[in-house]
Amino acid sequence: MRGTPLASHGSTPLHGQTAALMRVGIDTYSYHRFFGEIREGEEDPGTRWTTWDFLDRAAELEVDGVSLETCYLDLDDPNFRERLALTLDETGLEAVLAWGHPGGLEMGTSRERLEDLFRVIDIAAGMGVDLVRLVVGTYTHWDMEPVDASVERLVPRVTEACRHAAEQGIRLAIETHTALPVRALAELIDRVDAPNLGVVLDTANVVRVGSDLMEATSLLAPLTDMVHVKDLDLSEADFGNPGGWWPCTSLGQGDLNLDGVLAELRSADFNSLACVELATLPPGSQEDRMVKESITWLRESIRLTG
């Protein structure tokens, strides 16, 4: 797989060289309904995919990489892991293992969940995958206790995970997953102070918790190892209530300033995977069409930004 696991976030081109562009990817969560996960308010599309169906489609769409939600992978099966590694090598797709949907580390309250993260880190290393996405919690943990208490409990848990990952040459990146305010996540990463820890910036999730998208991007861009590029219809938005109704649109067809986000990331020398991700799908949605439209939009926007 591409990338240097313990390298610093982003990279600055040498004199006379052109900076590398962001790479376009897809997160499997874009097809969560096809994997059997129907969120509240969604329709069942009547279609089911395997991991191999998804990877075939990613290859057809000629993306650079994929973020694979581990909740949809049979990682306990060694034959599955072997086939997955072989398929990724054959297709040339850069891969990220995205661990923790939905509750992740359960805000540091579960030793069992931390041990499961260790397991996935070891699997990633065995497959040659350099980056593991993790979440510390989800919207059900939002505002359930003082933020300082959450951060205090999470610091030793995340520190332990980073040490385990470093032994395997793996980077970890915490997603903005609606469990913590953006500044609290930045504080957590600062306190852990591990060279192999960064962020997965989700453009929708920072808005769901009530943050300004551009301010959040500016704060987190220097720490970002991967981006979930989502667009939202904000006509019924309940800012600060991440568990509300937050329907996704194809990229460029919603209300988020995604061009501004990409420009800010570019100014911070971000040149890693920017993955199309769809979450809540309103009635009548066709995710495969939306993904294709979003890839086209994202490629053009990256070209113009670069």
Topology:
Blueprint: E1 23-27, H1 51-60, E2 65-69, H2 78-91, E3 94-98, H3 111-127, E4 131-134, H4 147-167, E5 171-175, H5 182-192, E6 197-202, H6 205-208, H7 213-220, E7 224-229, E8 231-232, E9 248-249, H8 258-267, E10 273-276, H9 287-305
Parallel strand pairs: 1-2, 1-10, 2-3, 3-4, 4-5, 5-6, 6-7, 7-10
Antiparallel strand pairs: 8-9
Describe the structure.
This protein is 37% helix and 14% strand. The protein has 306 residues and is of the alpha/beta class. The strands form 2 sheets. An 8-stranded parallel β-barrel has the order 1-2-3-4-5-6-7-10, surrounded by 4 helices. Strands 8-9 form a two-stranded antiparallel sheet.
